[in-house]
Amino acid sequence: MGLFRFLNQWREKQDGTLEGPALNTDEITNVADRILDSVAEIESLPEDVSDGETVAIGRPDTPYQLTRSDLNIDGVSGLTLLFQSRFATNGDPILQAADGANVGGFVFGQNTAVNDLTVRNYGFDGNAANQTSGTELEAVEIQSASDVDLINAYASNLYPQNEHNSGGSAFVFSECDDVSVRRVKCDNPGDRTLELFSVVDFDVKGVFGTEGYDRTVTVANGSKHGSVETVRSTGNADGSVVATQGTSSAYCEDVTIRDVKARGPHARAAKAEQYSQNVRFYDITSEPSSGQGGFGVNFKGGVVRDVLLDDFQFTGIGAPVTVRKDSDRVKISNGEIRDANDAGMVIFGNTTGTEIEVRNVLATGSSGVDFKTDTKDVIFDGVTYDTIETAVRTIVNGKSTQSAAPGSGAAGDYWGGHSATAYQHNVTIVDTSTSPSSYYKADEGGNWVQIG
To answer: 150, 234, 252, 419 - which has most CB atoms within 10 Å?
Structure first.
């Protein structure tokens, strides 16, 4: 079997796991410059690797037991690290932290940048139950690298467990550019499954996490110009399945998140947090019974702008869609919210956000109201609902209700001075101060015309 045919045979099973073949010895012999088959050879790689090499690691009967704490490969260009399989013959990951070793897996580019790096079929078990000290013992970490491919990787039981930031995460990239990630999975990360910190130009397809602590995928600290597609998460205890988050000096921007399915309890399916801009979410789903008390999608505010949520479905979860303060130019479209354990969609927080639009969304059966906003100038168009709470100049399916005639200057007149906006959106203003109610539209010249 050729190498690329081998890679294309990996598939996601119904339970979210990956399955695929192992390369046989002849196949790795044909593509590798050398094959390693001992812990000593593997742990000597930092001092014994050359530019342009393809180094293969043979499949052992039981995992290689790692003890070296500085398994760091620096300054190399054109390296391919090819494992015969992610797993030893006994079914455990091919690499494992030895009892009491308190080590993680490989680190690339920590001291000197690497270039043109490929890692295939990587497997690492952190053996968390038998470690005693250390923080952030990651499965693999890639720093200061360009042109990176990580393909068919697996990690499990990382140390320490259930610690945010200090816990062991699986696949960590920082200060990298031109990154491709394909088909990676982690069971029981101590913190996150995939971390992208200050990564530019990235393409991620296929991330699977079970029983994580914080986010399954985080795109953060200046990461931009990239996409994350096909994320499956089960039992994500404390964080989002996928989230973007920047800083005041390093915005997270121009990111597409697509095809996210959250299974089992989790805090939220997706989130755009502070200093995120031009972020797009498509095809986001939380299964029923998951996410109680959390969110489906949360735009947290604190400078979140030009964000899109399109094609989503949430049934029986808590707070399915939430837009918080300081969220600008938010568009939400083509979704269904059913039987929420809270309000279906909330746009709130004394927000100063502008240009918030909700189009073609059904919300019904919520334990709270289906749509709720305390924010000015929100547009709901083509929405279906049982209950709705509106605010100043809220437009709902082409109408906006207030307790005064527009332009009258009377108490309750919020559309006075906003006739251009009313004309732009072809809004009918409903004045409920009369019986029956009166109806107005703005003409092109900014005048209010009573139509009924």
So the answer is: 252
